[in-house]
Amino acid sequence: IKKLSTIGLALGVERTRTELIPFLTDTIYDEDEVLLALAEQLGTFTQLVGGETHVHVLLV
Asked: A single GO molecular function, which one (predicted)?
């Protein structure tokens, strides 16, 4: 979880938006501690998903 921005950077904007975010949503949605760590990391993901135009994918 702590290295999500590194993974997002390596994947690029499109793959972060279409693959990484859905994967994270599907696999770790039920764990409270994981969700807290994930929320902290996703706060820095605006540029990694393509900027403000696509930031909505982080809120789904």
From this structure: protein phosphatase regulator activity
